[in-house]
Amino acid sequence: MFGFLQTALTYIVPFLLVLTVVVTIHELGHYWAARACRVAIDQFSIGFGRRIFGWRDRQGVEWRVGWIPLGGYVKFSGDENAASVPDHANLEALRQKIETEQGRGAADRYFHFKPVWQRAFITAAGPLANFVLAIVLFSFLLMTVGETVLPARVAGVEAGSAAQRAGFVVDDVVVEANGQKIDNFFDLQQIIAVRSQAPTTFVVDRGGQLVRLTATPERRIVSDRMGGEQKIGVLGIASPAGATDRSVRRYGPLEAVVAGTERTWRVLSTTVYYLGRVVTGRESADQLGGPLRIAQASGQVAQSGAQGAPDTGAMLLGSAVALLGLTAVLSVGIGFMNLLPVPVLDGGHLVFYAYEAVARRPLAAKVQAAGYRVGLALLLGLMLFATWNDLQQLRVFKFLGGLIS
Q1: 189-215: b or e for each residue (b if 16 or more CB lie within 10 Å)?
Q2: Buried b / exposed e across 40-60, counting CB within 10 Å, b at 16+?
Q3: CA pair distance 73, 27, nearest whole angstrom
Q4: 3 state SS of 323
């Protein structure tokens, strides 16, 4: 029993906190955009399934928390279900019913009868809210906690490594990698990690002279602190690990917003690049993680933030700060994933609205219905695949096999 409680506090609670914040902000994006367009709303729910608790506001919106804390939704009046899929075959009948019961023009307040640009705006507002959340969190952390800066100086070159073959030498300072400005060794590591087996151009400052080098990071299996494994790109250079090389930089408000926006864009572009490599077969799909590895990462981040704290209060503060950074990164990922052109996701809806705007009529109801079924199957398949990867990476099957043998 004690072991379960410890696991819950270490992994499950941080994971649910991070996920709840990201989902809530995403759905609030849809909600406030709908309110701005004067759309009638029935429910705002965090979580699915039976309601744990809730209330109804003066606008008649039911705010509720469901017992399955793995998502959320905004249900507009007239929706057939929580995915905002109307009964297209009876859409005109729905208009007539609404106006018969509520008066002429009442249907204009319903989402499905709004102009296509308003529906597209409301749909895109969810992912946009995720990107804004990431910018706000990154900016807040840069202003308050600051960032640890470790100069991108080469302290050592591994024999036989990609770095040695490319001509890196000790005391080179990397100023550019793959066209991106580098002023921190951590940023350099992130670029290298996702570019395994991809020729990459580096610019180094060598004694005041700029030297251009081309290296291809090697794909290696690296173990994490939880016994899992990751395949990442490795160049074969060592960082300056001494405490004297590290400094903490704090930003002013305006500077922090600019840096927070840049960091959000960097996370987004790295995500897009990495997924592109997976789709084209240049990166192994077994690195795609699901909820189990997100939970694992949440626990690891919370623990790392608490390390070295002198008391419980400092431990909680350190964990909270670390989880804010993870929340920002995850928010970018959720925002991007929702923009993919897959029916049932926001991006799929936007594709349908784009067709409607060009053709000046909605896509045929049968085509939309088929698209939603295919999209749902793809989404469920991806979730199952990612969960399978999680179980493999966390060596769950190996553990269970050891219990049986």
Answers
A1: bbbbbbbbebebebbbbeeeeeeebeb
A2: bbebbbbbeeeeeeeeeeeee
A3: 6
A4: helix
Q: For tokens 């991809």, name the residue.
A: 198
pTM recorded for the entire structure: 0.82
Contact 189, 274 (CB under 8 A): no
d(C-alpha 3, C-alpha 318), whole Å: 23
Instruction: Give the three-state DSSP class for 337.
Output: helix
Q: What share of the chain is helix, strand, coil (3-state, %, to 5)?
A: 55, 20, 25
| Span 242-269, pLDDT tens digits | 555 678 889 999 999 999 999 999 889 9
DSSP 243-272: GGG-EEE---HHHHHHHHHHHHHHHHHHHH
Least confident of 212-216, 218-222, 283-287: 283-287
83 band by pLDDT with thresholds 50, 70 and 90: very low
What's the CA gap between 221 and 233, in Å, rounded? Answer: 9
Distance (Å, whole) CA 338 – CA 73:
13
- Bridge partners, 157 (sequence order): 237
DSSP 8-class letter at 287: G
pLDDT band with cut points at 50, 70 and 90 for residue 366: confident
If residue 135 lies in a helix (H) or strand (E), which one and from where to where? helix 116-144
Tokens 């929580």, residue located: 82
Identify the three-state secondary structure at position 1. coil
Q: Per DSSP, which regions of 192-336 are E strands?
A: 200-206, 209-215, 218-223, 229-234, 237-238, 247-249
Q: How does DSSP classify residue 61? A: P
**101 in active site:** no
